[in-house]
Each structure stands twice: as structure tokens, then as C-alpha cells.
Amino acid sequence: MKDFFVNLLILLVAGAFVNNVVLSQFLGICSFLGISNKIKTATGMGFAVIFVITMASAIASAIYKFVLRPLDLDYLQTIVFIMVIACLVQFVEMVIKKFSPTLYNALGVYLPLITTNCAVLGVALINVQNDYDIFTSIVNGFGTSLGYTIAIILLAGIRERMEFNNISKSFKGSPIVLITATLMAMAFYGFAGIV
Amino acid sequence: MNKYVERLYNGIVKENPIFIMMLGMCPTLAVTTSATNGAGMGLSTTVVLAAANLLISAIRKFIPDKVRMPSYIVVVASLVTIVELLLKAYLPSVNEALGIYIPLIVVNCIIFGRVEAYAAKNAVGVSFFDGIGMGLGFTIALIAIGAFRELLGAGTLFGYGIMPESFTPIAMFVQAPGAFLVLAMLTALQNKLMLPSATNGSGRKSTLACGGDCANCSGEVYAANHSDLQKAKEIAATVENNAKKSQKED
Lengths: 195, 250
Fold this sequence. Notes:
The complex is a heterodimer of chains A (195) and B (250). By secondary structure, chain A is mostly helical.
């Protein structure tokens, strides 16, 4: 039992830092570069992603375990997962809108964007590929999305500070953001080997 | 120029999905650790893109407007599954190297972009060639970036050692930070030479609903409400025109 929890903790740290979803696996780059110009929006997006990825991991691996596996339909996983994610995002949006307008105002704008965020489908597929059970999938999903949130908030913080810097003309805009991402990726490389 | 050749030229040069439009950044950064990987990913995407354009153009008149996105998703996901199974069966080494990025072709915005912007409005033949052109443009860009990273990071090209022995490979280029650095330098170079690119706003505007500019997307505009946005703009424009007219008449 103790081993089980230690393994989960390792998985969580590995997902959040060592195999950071954005900086070492390149999933969700579009939103990482796009929505990171303000800490406030980055935080909103980050928490929306945590919410959706954790739920999607649970549902996708449950469907895989109880429907696709027993029926020998493994090869349909891509189609099923993307549909499930699209429906889930719509559903979550409707539920939040109905029950918690505050939460909707904080996360709502970002929810539709998440359907096309490849990190969600990526995590669901990684869970299945590694044969994680449902609980482990949820932990992996949570760890991965935590890593995304950490990375996007850090980048947003750096970008806010860089706003008034005198950057050479050719590097203005996306080049300097990509350079920042390079340095962050190097820093995160330091975590390699911890787990 | 023949309209089919024009489509190919458009995809490879004029609206190159990576160099000009900056679409599909995730696979671009992730799989370009070597020229071979870039070629594998590019060609798989080309197959999906051409087939998706062909199929959706053929059934475009039967898809109701309201459920078009889910229908596109199903078609594209099925095609990706077919490609994945074919790769598993005939090219296991490519499948191994690209791993999870093959099923992730489903969420590549180039595919939805072309399907939504071109195949859903044009005839079967040109749509097919549009898919091939865009796919080849993507493949060429991936091979170029992959070759550059492989050459500096491992000293090889397509797996053959071509750098002199005194050359110490700069391992960073085949690792994660190298991907960001190469792309940063590429965009900076485009800015410096004033080459058209979505990142400096001088590139041809993508016909994608969200503008296609992933790097500067602020998330406010989303594909689903694009048509509403368009209508609102049209209304605003007519209101403005009317106001101007009435002012003139006054």
C-alpha cells in the first residue's frame, strides 16, 4: 500500500516537472505561446486545463477499460477519445455556466479552446499506452496538467516583466517568447534524472 | 498556370503551413529531432490531409452546417487511425520513432484549417491537390528543420555521418530546448529579412477561423463563434456605411 502511494507521488512529480508536457513533450504549444501574455489569463487557462485533463483522463481510461478493451476495439481509441473530449468540454461548459457563473467567468472563455489542445488527447493516449489503471491515469493527468499550469504561469510572469524591455527589432514578438521558452526548457532539463 | 499546379505551388511556397502560416507547431517542434523523423511525420500528415480534403469535398453537400465540426473530426480521426495501423504493419520503425505524435495528427490545426477553409467549399479535384500541396509544404519544412537540428545536434544527415570527426555534436539541438531555439532563430530571421510570416503580421492571413496565428492567439476568437463574429462585423460595417451615407446626405 505504501509502495502504491510512493509510486503515485513519483508519477505526479515526473508528470509535473521531469517530463513537463510543454517544455519536453511539446504538447499544447499553441496555447502555451498564445495565452501567456498576462499572468491572470495564464492562470485561468492553467486551471481550466487541469480541470479538463484530469476529467478527460478518468473518463477516457474508464471507456478504454470497460468498453474498448472487452470488445477488442482498441484501434478505435483515437476516434473515441477525441469525440469524448469534445463532448466533455461542451458538457463541462454547460454545467459550469448553469451552476457557477463565477467559475464560468473565470474559466469559461478558455474551455472551447481546450478541445483542440493536443495535451488533452495526448495524456489520454499516454495513459492507455502505459496501461495505467483508472486511478493512476487520474494522477498522471493531474500531474501533467499541473506541469502545464506551472510552465504557462512562469512564462506569463517572465513575459510581463519583459514587456518594457528594449528588445532588438527582429526579436520582438514571438522570437523572444521562443527564446524564453528555450531557457525555461533548459532549466527544466535539470530535473531529468530525479525520478 | 494550371489550377492543380497552382494549388501545389500555393501549399509549398506561397502559403507554406510552417514557414509562412506558423500552423501545427506541436509536431513541428516535437518530431524534428532528425530529418528522417521529419519526413515520416510530414508524409503521414500529407496522406491524412489529402484524403481528408478528398473525402470531405466529396460529401460537403450532405453535411449539415450545424454538425460539420463533429463530422470533420470523425472523418479525420478515422483516416488517422488507418494511417496509424498501416504504419504499425509496414513501417514499425517509423511508428516507434513518432510514437504518440501519429494519433495526435487528429488535432493538427493544418488539417482542420484546410478542410474548413478549402475542401468544404471547393470541388473534389482541386481540394485533393490542395491537400497534397499543403502536405508537401509541411513535409519539406519538417525535413529542413529536422536536417538542421540533426546536423548540429548529432553530426549526421538522414542517419549518415557527414560532419568531420573533429566536430563535436551540440547535443542541445536534438533535445527539447534546441527545438524552441531553432524556431526562435527562424522567426527572428524572417523578421530581420522582412520575409512574410504570420508571426510578424506581414504573412498572408490564414483563412482559418481563428486567424491561424497560434503564436499570437489570445484565445478570444474561437472557430465556433467565428461565423457569428463575421455576421456582427458585416452588420457593424453596414451600420457604419449607412451612417456615413446619411452624413453625406446631410
